[in-house]
Every structure is written in C-alpha cells, then in structure tokens.
Design goal:
- The structure is a single chain.
- The chain is built from 8 helices and 15 strands.
- It has helices at residues 64-75, 97-100, 162-165, 168-171, 183-190, 196-199, 225-238, 260-270, and strands spanning 15-20, 25-30, 33-35, 41-43, 81-86, 94-95, 103-108, 115-123, 126-129, 134-137, 144-149, 154-159, 203-207, 278-281, 304-309.
- It has a 7-stranded mixed beta sheet, with helices on one face. Strands 6-9-12-11-13-14 form a 6-stranded mixed beta sheet. A two-stranded antiparallel ribbon has the order 3-4.
- The chain is globular.
- The two termini are 19 Å apart.
C-alpha cells in the first residue's frame, strides 16, 4: 500500500488505490494528508463518529469526512451511495444493505459543493456488498477483512479488530455473551459458505491500516490490565503461542502482544479457506498514514478505508 496518483498531476501522500481479485474489488484509503481546496496538504481525521447519532451531525462542515467525502466519491468513481456500518459494539454481526442500513444521510461538502449519500447506523462489524456499491470504515488500528467468492460473485467485508475476533464477553463471564466467536465465521456464513468445500476456493485479503506490531494489550494497563491478561492466556491456549508472541517469557508476556493476522488466518483456515488464497496487505509508512498508537498522534483520530465491489 503506497501513495498513488489518483488521476491528478501529483501523488497524494497517504492515499491507497489498489485492485484485488483480478480487478473485481477496489481498495481505497486515506491516512494523514489530503489536499485542501488551495492544494495544500493538511492532516485529516477520517472518523465516521459525526454520523453515529443524528442526521444533523452532517452539518459539522469542518470535519474531514464532511469536507472531502463527496470529492473522494466523485474522483474515485465510488457511485452515489456509500455504506458504513458502525462497529462500535464489536458484536461480530454481519448486515446486508437492505435489512439493516436505516439512516440515509446527505453529505454536502462546503468546499467542493458536491453531495454524497451515506447509509449509516447498523451496529455490525461486517456486511455483504452489492456490485457497484462501496463499504466505508474508519478502523483506527484494526484490520479490515475482505473475502471474495468468485463462484457467486459475493463480496464480504468486515472490521476485524481483536474484540470482533474473540468473544471477550465470555472471558468476562458475561452470561449474555454473544454466541459467535468471531466476525470471520459470521461473515463466511452470511456469504453462504458454511462447508469446507464451499470455502476452499474463497480468496481473502487482510488489510492493516497501521503496523500490526503496535497491537499490544499491556497486562499493567490501569483500566484493562486484567482483561488483557485474560486475552493473552486465551489466545495462547486456544490459537497457539504463535498468536501471542513472547507468552512464555516472564517479562515479554506482560506486553500482551497479540498476532491478530494469525488469528484471522487460523479462523479462515479452520473453515476451509486455502492458505494460498489469503493475502496480507501491510500498512503504509507511518509518515503518511495515521496510527492512533504512535506517540504524539491524536488517539481519537482515524484513517479511512473504502472497499468497492466493481
């Protein structure tokens, strides 16, 4: 994932534009910078939080997503409707466009005077995406999983962070914990791939917005230390110590390193997806991409990832 020329005379730092699966899927993303109307590069926040609650939030014209979303949709040919499930509950659920996307928000850019429609509001980590439509997420450090079924032309996309991959409510002893372990399994089920034979020919891409080495869950965290230790113990015991690097070292283990990529891969493999069909797309350089875990970065700022079914 590198800076690319999107049709303008100069490459935009922080921009990603990549075609996957023989051109059937397009991956687009923005990190720290985007040119303002005067052509000056400025730091951006691609968080979708302004659209979490009410339609009038779209009037927050100073927010990056409001200013630039219509321009990005136009310049990159994303169509007139973008879908943005909300992964804030980490519930591993998968939605479709028709049955759960209830909020239809008109986003008008104050700088470019373009308008774009955003469907927002489903509390889900993933969704199935129709041809010609675009999935949108501001994942911070969490991976984005893209699964393609060539046989049926079905595309599934998911926000695949730690809390969506393992059932943390069960670790906490919550009697009302969700039934599913992972959004990975729910996504494959929603795609109609419920047997190993059906999953064998699937292809997948694991996209990392930030360096996965930054995904640590410290045991001495003042608020989450006990839960982080449970995470490490569970991951090492259930998925193997390759998924919890340093777990057997009395000092290293307290860092709470979790190999999220390996957990996703093992879950895909367990359902029958062939290892050769799984691609990992590494993060861009931190100099041009926003990492909420880098010192000095705004922990509330987000990058933006778009996945288009062509």
């Amino acid at each position: 994932m590198t800076a690319v020329d999107n049709g303008s005379s100069t490459a935009i730092p922080g921009a990603v534009d990549r075609y996957l699966f023989e051109g059937k899927v397009r991956l687009i993303g923005f990190g720290k910078f985007y040119p303002n109307p005067k052509g000056v590069l400025e730091k951006q926040d691609w968080s979708l939080r302004p659209f979490n609650n009410q339609e009038e939030a779209a009037q927050q014209t100073g927010h990056s997503i409001t200013r630039y979303l219509p321009k990005i949709a136009r310049d990159f040919g994303l169509g007139k409707m973008l879908y943005a499930p909300s992964p804030r509950l980490f519930n591993a659920q998968v939605c479709s466009e028709s049955d759960t996307m209830k909020k239809r928000i008109m986003v008008t850019s104050p700088d470019y005077h373009n308008t774009e429609w955003l469907l927002r509001g489903a509390d889900a980590d993933g969704m199935l995406l129709s041809r010609g439509h675009t999935y949108m997420v501001s994942p911070a450090g969490c991976p984005v999983l893209i699964v393609w079924d060539e046989a049926t032309s079905t595309l599934g996309v998911a926000h695949a962070g730690m809390r969506s991959l393992i059932n943390e409510d069960a670790l906490k002893g919550n009697p009302e914990a969700r039934r599913s372990e992972s959004v990975v399994y729910n996504l494959l089920d929603a795609m109609g791939c419920t047997t190993k034979r059906q999953c064998r020919a699937l292809r997948a891409a694991i996209v990392f917005p930030i360096d996965p080495a930054l995904l640590t869950y410290s045991w001495d965290h003042p608020d989450y230390g006990p839960l982080n230790k449970k995470r490490s113990v569970y991951v090492a015991g259930y998925y193997g110590e390759l998924c919890a690097p340093g777990f057997n070292d009395p000092v290293q283990c307290t860092l709470g390193r979790i190999n999220v990529e390996m957990i996703i891969r093992l879950q895909l493999y367990a359902r029958g997806v062939h290892p050769r069909g799984v691609l990992t797309i590494p993060s861009p350089p931190s100099a041009v991409w926003r990492s909420t875990r880098d010192p000095g970065e705004d922990p509330n700022a987000r990058n933006g990832v778009w996945v288009q079914h062509l």
